[in-house]
Amino acid sequence: MATLFSFASWNVEHFTNAPDRVRENIEFIQESNPDVFAIFEVQGKQVFSSFVDLMPTHNFFITEGLSVMEILVGVNRKFTAFVTQRQQFKSQVPTLRPGALVTLTTDLGYYSLLFLHMKSMDDPRSWGLRDDVTLRVAHLKHALDQASGDSEHGAKFLCLGDFNTMGMNLTFSDKDMDGLEELTRYQDRLSRNHLIYLDKDAPHTWWGGMDSGLAPSDLDHVFASDHIEFTKFGTASVSVRGWPQMDTPEDQTDWIQSHSDHAMLYGEVLE
């Protein structure tokens, strides 16, 4: 089966106008050359301008709001795409980021890609906001299914990004939840809307490096309609690219310091 389009999602922490870092990160994205991608924590119009100048093959869109860290979306010019800012994924918190929804036109119909950057931290409020966002994902998928006209399969839909699945720490309680339990909760909820969790070819997507004192974590994820076919990377449907590909902790730390503490998620939808 041939590739219909490729996609990527990457949190480039505090991605602002540092020219060398901007250029290196754009070159890293170009190595995979995804047709549709989102970059999280973009700060400043200069980053937008750099993408426009260095990636003339793509059109770009950036979310707007009270947050100084926005979502930048790129779409290959060979595709027709409709990009919308979905305010419901702010969960009525003005300073949170909206979702970026890309409706891509292909020879096989429409594909909807929802890029999300959820609230971080493991306190109950932050966990509750993430839980609310995943419920809103389920509602959107249901609405898209109803509008698709495909009563058997429903909409062709992907939801991906930095879910910040850190779990929940309840003070003075034995009911704490770790990141895996939180992710499992979302898997169970979204499976009811025929969304499956796409396995990755690396166990972790975030690390602060050797000097952080923190262990690597699995924070970035992809969910997709269960009737979509994907290229396999080994046995996985999502390739984790960046620091997890480095051979040693020293090399991983160097990559993190020059690029980002998050790895990039990359995948390919098949015809």
Q: How would you characterize the overall build of this protein?
A:
The chain is globular and about 50 Å long. It is about 25% helix and about 30% strand. It is of the alpha+beta class and about 270 residues long. It has a 6-stranded mixed sheet with strand order 3-4-2-1-12-11, with helices on one face. Strands 5-6-7-8-10-9 form a 6-stranded mixed sheet.
Topology summary:
Blueprint: E1 3-15, H1 19-32, E2 36-42, H2 45-54, E3 58-62, E4 70-76, E5 80-86, E6 99-106, E7 109-117, H3 124-148, E8 157-162, H4 179-191, E9 195-197, E10 220-225, E11 239-241, H5 249-258, E12 264-270
Task: Summarize the model shown.
This protein is 27% helix and 30% strand. With 271 residues, it is of the alpha+beta class.
What's the CATH topology label?
A: Deoxyribonuclease I, Chain A
The CATH C-level name is Alpha Beta
Could you give the order of strands across the largest sheet? 3-4-2-1-12-11
Structural class: alpha+beta
Describe the main β-sheet briefly. Answer: 6 strands, mixed
Q: Give the mean pLDDT.
A: 95
The CATH superfamily is identified as: Endonuclease/exonuclease/phosphatase
User: What share of the residues does DSSP label as strand, in percent?
Assistant: 25-35%
Q: What is the rounded distance between the termini?
A: 6 Å
Helix content: 25-40%
